[in-house]
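Quick review question:
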């Protein structure tokens, strides 16, 4: 029997999941939300109650957890906090109309939105959010905690480190390497490798100091 699911974050990602549970195979599994915004406590959001703050999960034994948040650093901090509760499992979920080729690996806690295509040989790390209508070429490697906004297109053999933010409609050529904690601006075209911790924007993409 599948365990009930708590969504962390009564915001845009969590709202999408709660509003469309059937396309992720979550029918009758969502129990409610937790969120550290005190103004949301006890309120209803997308048909489910905001039960408590995140700390409530530290003592729970009967739930799976989905991190319904896109921001990489926030996700990292939440997983660090929740790591003291070893009973929590983090299922990865994929929309029914997403296409994931054979010979791909999807890490725990990742969310693959509708319309996404991921070609063969690709690896998606843990707690990655890939929003609507993204396309990843073959042998892409996306680091854990990263987030791809809608319409991101990555050429084959693109590789990113942990906690990278790809803005709406950003694109890479084949074989691009992007370091950890990079922010890629919306509609950017990345044609050269990007070191750790940089912000890049434009066509072609240029590092912004």
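Suggested answer, residue by residue:
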């Amino acid at each position: 029997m599948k365990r009930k699911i708590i969504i962390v974050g009564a915001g845009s990602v969590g709202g999408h999941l709660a509003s469309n549970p059937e396309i992720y195979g979550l029918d009758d599994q969502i129990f409610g939300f937790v969120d550290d915004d005190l103004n949301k406590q006890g309120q209803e959001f997308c048909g489910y109650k905001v039960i408590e703050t995140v700390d409530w999960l530290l003592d729970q034994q009967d739930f799976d957890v989905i991190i319904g948040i896109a921001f990489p650093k926030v996700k990292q901090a939440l997983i660090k906090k929740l790591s003291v509760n070893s009973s929590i499992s983090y299922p990865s979920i994929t929309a029914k109309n997403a296409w994931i080729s054979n010979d791909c690996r999807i890490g725990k806690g990742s969310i693959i939105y509708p319309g996404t295509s991921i070609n063969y040989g690709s690896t998606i790390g843990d707690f990655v959010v890939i929003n609507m209508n993204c396309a990843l070429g073959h042998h892409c490697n996306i680091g854990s905690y990263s987030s791809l906004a809608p319409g991101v297109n990555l050429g084959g053999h693109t590789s990113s480190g942990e906690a990278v933010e790809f803005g709406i409609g950003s694109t890479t050529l084949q074989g691009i390497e992007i370091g950890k904690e990079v922010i890629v601006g919306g509609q950017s075209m990345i044609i050269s490798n990007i070191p750790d911790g940089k912000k890049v924007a434009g066509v072609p993409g240029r590092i912004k100091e």
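Why it works: The radius of gyration is 17 Å. The first helix runs from residue 12 to 19.
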